[in-house]
């Protein structure tokens, strides 16, 4: 919050001049990697590993992807699912949402497929 107020306040308090705006420091980041654990006719088991790539512990994370071939998640563990059509969003649960810098958390799911089962490409964002 101070990063937002300081420039405006400093400009107001500095007669005839302005203060350069400080560059915000990145809070952190994360990556998400998908693995097909097993596949059978009409179904598969997926696993996603979320790695904290930031310099500090995260407060929470969200992983998103879009299924390319109509796959649908039927069961999930280690995450909270929100899906709308092909769009999938998974948030952490209480016990795996705060990985330390460099640490990972994993969630898994069972899903159905028909015809083609293209692997999803997940993205992660700390929240």
Quick one: how many beta strands? 8
**How confident overall, as mean pLDDT?**
87
Relative strand content:
35-45%
Span between termini:
17 Å
* Overall outline: elongated
> What structural class should be given to the helix and strand makeup?
mainly beta
Rg result: 20 Å
- Helical content, roughly? under 10%
Instruction: Name the strands of the widest sheet in spatial order.
Output: 1-2-7-4
Query: Which spans have pLDDT < 50 for at least 5 consecutive residues?
Result: 17-26
SSE string: HEEEEEEEE
Q: Count the DSSP helices.
A: 1
Largest sheet: 4 strands, antiparallel
For this entry, give a set of tags.
8 strands, mainly beta, four-stranded antiparallel beta sheet, elongated, 127 residues
Describe the structure.
The chain is mostly beta strands and 127 residues long. Helix content is 9%, strand content 44%. It contains 1 helix and 8 strands; from the N terminus they run H-E-E-E-E-E-E-E-E. It has one helix at 2-13, and strands at 30-40, 43-52, 61-66, 72-77, 80-84, 87-91, 104-112, 123-126. The chain has a 4-stranded antiparallel beta sheet, with no helix packed on it. Strand 1 and strand 2 (43-52) form a beta hairpin. The relative contact order is 0.26. Mean pLDDT is 87; it is low at 17-26.
Compact summary:
The chain has 127 residues and is mainly β.
Please write out the topology:
Blueprint: H1 2-13, E1 30-40, E2 43-52, E3 61-66, E4 72-77, E5 80-84, E6 87-91, E7 104-112, E8 123-126
Antiparallel strand pairs: 1-2, 2-7, 3-6, 3-8, 4-7, 5-6
